[in-house]
């Protein structure tokens, strides 16, 4: 065969083979039956829920124990972070000065309540609103859990974001309370840490009935099946996914319903308020509850003892002192 004709034939065959490979590859990636196998972190799972590119859910195999914590030697310690870069809840009181453990005023109700809780249950509590205190993983690894207490909007800078992620990946514990859901809206990893969700809106602060889920978890053990409480009853978007729901609100008990001013209709019969998950190597326990100042003080309020017990169990399980996410 002449050299020129042989070259043309080889080129034609090569193009055909290349096209066939591309078509086959395209068919493999596009096939609904194989999309997850081809690209398990493709941005959404087969149900269309966000996929955050990490191991997450209720399987303990998602926890990554690097041996960063030695309670037998160091005891248990948590960091309460309450920095706000937007609206500030009354239960936080005035903004705190820079540094670690600045003086707390009587109006710093939530921070003071968490310090008291630690003193009563034998774990140390530090507190801050200074983002530099979260600027490195080595700082955070002093703590068995980090508590975001009604933080708002962009409460972290780049170094703190990196440190928090490395801390969680190293087996750290996270507790998010109330407006922790209104924080770091544009950071997908943090949305995943919250259970794949964010704050959307809420109705007015009003009484309702909390329905306890399985009472095997440290945060629900000893709670009644139903208990009265008052809150803003956050509506969330997206709906939490791959989590163990620990408590819900019965929307039928809300005098004004759960609809907020932004158009969210509420969650109907399935309105979670607390849940847990393993996330990117660490533990995450979160609750939307905790709006009222009375929930954090000695002032009488329906359900305040149940709420305190719930939060205490969440903290102790997130920091590894009690079994997590049962």
UniProtKB/TrEMBL annotation:
Signal peptide: 1-24
Residue stretches making up the ThuA-like domain: 106-316
Domain of life: Bacteria
Keyword Magnesium included in the entry's annotation: no
Keywords: Signal
UniProt cross-references to InterPro entries, sorted A to Z: Class_I_gatase-like (IPR029062), TAT_signal (IPR006311), ThuA-like (IPR029010)
Name of the protein in question: ThuA-like domain-containing protein
Organism listed in the record: Asanoa ishikariensis
Origin organism lineage: Bacteria, Bacillati, Actinomycetota, Actinomycetes, Micromonosporales
């Amino acid at each position: 065969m002449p050299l020129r004709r042989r070259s043309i034939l080889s080129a034609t065959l090569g193009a055909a083979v290349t096209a066939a490979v591309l078509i086959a590859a395209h068919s493999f990636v596009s096939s609904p039956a194989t999309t997850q196998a081809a690209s398990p972190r493709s941005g959404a799972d087969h149900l269309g829920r966000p996929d955050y590119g990490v191991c997450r859910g209720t399987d303990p195999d998602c926890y990554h124990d690097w041996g960063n914590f030695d309670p037998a030697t160091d005891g248990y310690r948590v960091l309460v972070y309450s920095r706000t870069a937007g609206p500030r809840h009354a239960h936080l009181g005035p903004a705190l000065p820079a540094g670690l453990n600045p003086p707390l005023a009587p109006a710093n109700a939530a921070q003071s309540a968490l310090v008291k809780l630690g003193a009563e249950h034998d774990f140390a509590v530090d507190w801050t609103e200074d983002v530099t205190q979260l600027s490195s993983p080595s700082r955070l690894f002093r703590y068995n859990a980090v508590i975001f207490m009604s933080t708002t909007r962009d409460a972290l800078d780049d170094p703190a974001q990196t440190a928090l992620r490395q801390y969680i990946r190293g087996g750290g514990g996270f507790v998010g309370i109330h407006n922790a859901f209104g924080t770091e809206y544009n950071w997908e990893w943090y949305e995943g840490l919250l259970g794949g969700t964010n704050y959307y809106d809420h109705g007015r602060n009003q009484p309702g009935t909390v329905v306890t889920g399985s009472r095997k978890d440290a945060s629900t053990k000893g709670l009644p099946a139903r208990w009265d409480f008052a809150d803003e009853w956050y509506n969330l978007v997206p709906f939490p996914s791959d989590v163990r729901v620990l408590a819900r609100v019965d929307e039928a008990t809300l005098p004004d319903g759960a609809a907020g001013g932004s158009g969210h209709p509420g969650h109907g019969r399935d309105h979670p308020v607390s849940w847990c998950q393993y996330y990117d190597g660490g533990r995450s326990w979160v609750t939307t509850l905790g709006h009222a100042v009375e929930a954090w003080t000695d002032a009488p309020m329906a359900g305040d003892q149940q709420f305190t017990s719930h939060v205490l169990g969440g903290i102790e399980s997130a920091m590894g002192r009690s079994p997590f996410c049962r």
